[in-house]
# Entry
Amino acid sequence: MFISNVFIDTSVFISANYDINSKIFTDLKSYCKDGRIQLFICDITISEIDSNITKNTIEAGSIIKKFCNKARILRNLSSEKFKGIFDEFQHDEISKEVQSQIELFLSECNATIINASSIDASKVFEDYFKGKAPFGEGKKKCEFPDAFVVKALKKWCKENNQKICIVSEDPDFEKACKDQDIFVYLSSLAKYIDIILADKDKLIELIHDKINIDKEKIYKAIIPEIKDYNMVVMDADPEAEAIVEGVEIQKISDVSVIGISENSAIIEASILARLDIYVNCYDPDSWYKDWEDKSIHYWDKIETNFEREEQIHVEFEISFDRDSFDEFEIDRVIVNKGNQLTFYLVEDDDFY
# Structure
């Protein structure tokens, strides 16, 4: 069901890497400008986005600093293309630039900012002690902003006698929306765009049906693209290699049409795939240091295959004859939003 009022949570911006120039955000902005939808956001959400931008920028600075230390030999090169790498990292300046991009986006969308800070804190604490959503069993302090936001959105809906679609990748929001007839929860912005398009183009439903029927055709197009990606080994030496030798796609989910023209459509989805990955690297547990030249060496190597189950984002474009939509062709496939796939020797490891 299409609902013109939509709230976007912090998690959506984080997942998109704050890229408000991507197709999905530019399309959202165009729908706002032509009055088809009304975007809502809370003051607390804006502060949360700004805080996460600052945090992510500081983390990026830390990674660059470590890289510069390990890649210091590049300082000896005369080429100018390497000089900028070693410039001082201005995280305050970078944070402000990304934050201003988000601010401009909200302004161009003519977003309605709801004051969640003014919500009665006693009601939030009451939910906290009762363990009501968005508070779970752990009653994490990070859930407090969400609790104020949910209360504020609920207040706005009741005062204006309207419903609102809440887009969030945070499962706590999904719990908070349960059994609330004024809220419709969606786990991705792509799903909301799909609903907008389906409201004005009945072909969207047929596209979903065809994709469901012809899954194997889609799998055949995606598998070679995944195999073309050499993975980055995050917890081993820089020369480590990880090559995808086998791919078995187990299911496709979260299928959303994010763009449609007369005879083509752009689709986002998530696939669950079992990967057979050949890895060749030094064993990180076998390192030792040469105290004369301060260099790191290794006693042993790892050269074997790993099996891993991965959830991978895919985007693909299909072409068809709108008048007789019996078949479709897959024109292009983008895996993991064009970013490199990462591999950890130790699952759930965090290199940084």
User: Anything to note?
Assistant: The first strand starts at residue 5 and ends at 8.
